[in-house]
Design brief:
Layout (H helix, E strand, L loop, with lengths): L2 H19 L35 H7 L6 E5 L7 E8 L6 E8 L15 H13 L7 E5 L8 E6 L6 E7 L2 E8 L9 H17 L4
Antiparallel strand pairs: 1-2, 2-3, 3-7, 4-5, 5-6, 6-7
Length: about 210
């Protein structure tokens, strides 16, 4: 038997075996059976933006009680996609209270990334983490576990040491509350932080526009 005949004979035997077993002549697998590719772990679905618009300072003033008289407002965002920043002060005296909410949209792109679901939440978290990073300015002063609104909250120690600042992360928005009391107590004191704890829920409720 020459070499060609031997190769032909082996091929015939392989085909005969496949016909008897109902398998694939090449792989030897039963017909209709395929090798499943390994499944990879599914990534969690991106968190869609919660805030698609923000209230004006006038609306905040109407919805939040117990504030000093309204002094000025800023609704022209520079870094964020949406901004409402309101200052309240009994001029020329204190206290002074600043309430600010910034939000980022899913449908907007910038140099840091494309538009799409999850973009707003990612931007808000980045800002929250950078602002409250240990050693940053203002310095991270620890989690505000007794503030029960939003995803998480932290106390920040401002540079002037005569006021206290609370920052709250909520999906695609960051809320910042600042209190500068008349008697300039220590930033970590109840006299400074107490009013912000009380304001946190009412300000949070005031920015819920949906």
């Amino acid at each position: 038997m020459n070499r060609s005949a031997g190769i032909l004979g082996m091929a015939v035997l392989a085909l005969s075996a496949a016909a008897c077993t109902g398998g694939d002549a090449v792989s030897g697998r039963p017909q209709g059976m395929s090798i499943a590719s390994p499944t990879s772990a599914t990534s969690p679905a991106p968190v869609r933006a919660k805030y698609t618009e923000l209230p004006t300072c006038r609306q905040v003033t109407q919805r939040v009680t117990g504030l000093p008289p309204f002094r000025s407002g800023n609704e022209d965002p520079s870094v964020s996609d949406m901004l409402t920043g309101c200052e309240f002060q009994r001029i020329p005296d204190w206290p002074r209270v600043n309430l600010q909410v910034s939000a980022w949209r899913d449908e907007k792109s910038d140099v840091s990334g494309p538009a799409g679901p999850g973009r707003g939440a990612l931007k808000a978290r980045e800002v929250y983490d950078v602002t409250s990073k240990p050693g940053a300015d203002p310095a991270d002063d620890g989690a505000a576990e007794d503030v029960k609104v939003g995803e998480k909250a932290k106390w920040l120690t401002p540079k002037d040491r005569d006021s206290c600042t609370l920052i709250i992360l909520d999906v695609n928005a960051v809320l910042i509350l600042v209190n500068k009391p008349a008697d300039k107590p220590a930033p970590r004191s109840q006299e400074c932080r107490g009013p912000l704890r009380e304001l946190a829920k009412s300000f949070y409720d005031a920015v819920q526009t949906q």
